[in-house]
Amino acid sequence: MSALLYKAWLETRVRFIAGLTAVAIVCIFYMEQHAWLVRWWATDVRNLRNPYFYHSGMWWGIHEYGWYLWHYLYDNYLQQVWALFAALFAFDGLIRERASGTALFSLGLPVSRKRWLFARLAMVLLESIALSLFAVFVVILGSSVIHQTFSISQMVLHAALMVAAGAFVLALGNLCYTLLPGNYLSLLATLILIGVPYLWLQLYMQRVRVAELMRVQMHLPTQPHQSWLEYFDLAHAMAGPWQLNWATIPWVSLLVIWTLTGLVLAATVAYGDRIDY
Predict the structure, then answer these.
(1) pTM flag (> 0.70)
(2) Closest listed residue to residue 184, CA positions, set 254, 63, 99
(3) Where are the domains of the chain?
(4) Is the separation of the CB atoms in 139 and 149 below 8 Å?
(5) 3-state SS string over the chain?
(6) What gap in Å lies between CA 15 and CA 32, rounded to an integer?
(7) What keywords does the record list, in alphabetical order (predicted)?
(8) Deepest of 13, 54, 91, 195, by most Cβ within 10 A of its Cβ?
(9) CB contact at 8 A, 134 and 20
(10) Distances from the Cα of 271 to the Cα of 44, 90, 177, 180, angstroms
(11) How many CB atoms lie within 10 A of CB 88?
(12) Taking CA 99 as the corner, what is the angle to CA 5 and CA 107, rounded to the nearest 5 degrees?
């Protein structure tokens, strides 16, 4: 098994290093922008130039550095970068070897196709976990440089939640790579199947939650439960609320996503056992 993991690492190490670089850039950029954004927001609040901003909850960003990190990293840009590279990690393997003519040699080794698949999935998962923990490390160092403090335990919990919900991205990327010929076609299919509903649901549910928050703050009657779509909101499940504990983890969404992940993995194994290399 260790040899299979090492082989998977050799195939994905360039993308992994690129992922580390992208994560560092995103984290450093938004930590560097913190002071400037806070001054801008404070001016808007004093002058009441942006009531939508005030009622949207971003007022917390002025006073809570932890909320600021959660909003810009785990609820937005770091999450998107992580999901992109998680999908990229899923590619290569036996399909790439079939294109290069070496798949028959690999399949001739005393290793089942399922072990090939799960070895790759294990390496992809390890790299994805490493990417999320590296973001925590960068934030710890960067925050100390700009003299800001936050809860490290909350950052670790958010990193764990991002990986737990984002496992669906890994599974779907692996399925698309198994079903479709060629890296580019399978990558395009993965980005479309994940990206379109991911971004649409994220924007839709953000608007719903902001509207509900504004109604509460304006002492208007609240709306009933909005939509079952929130259980499929992958972005929200990966981000969670900014203060995570056992009660605030989106368990229903996680169960839905884990069920879909299991179905996708089962389909990948079933097709991978029958494919002609």
Answers:
(1) yes
(2) 99
(3) 2-274
(4) no
(5) CHHHHHHHHHHHHHHHHHHHHHHHHHHHHHHHCHHHHHHHHHHHHHHCCCHHHHHCCCCHHHHCHHHHHHHHHHHHHHHHHHHHHHHHHCCCCHHHHHHHCCHHHHHCCCCCHHHHHHHHHHHHHHHHHHHHHHHHHHHHHHHHHCCCCCCHHHHHHHHHHHHHHHHHHHHHHHHHHHHCCCHHHHHHHHHHHHHHHHHHHHHHHHHHHHHHHHHHHCCCCCCCCCCHHHHHCHHHHHHCCCCCCCCCCCHHHHHHHHHHHHHHHHHHHHHHHHCCC
(6) 25
(7) Membrane, Transmembrane, Transmembrane helix
(8) 91
(9) yes
(10) 56, 16, 11, 11
(11) 21
(12) 50
**For residue 105, what pLDDT is reported?**
54
What's the chain's length in residues? Answer: 277
Return the pLDDT at 200.
78
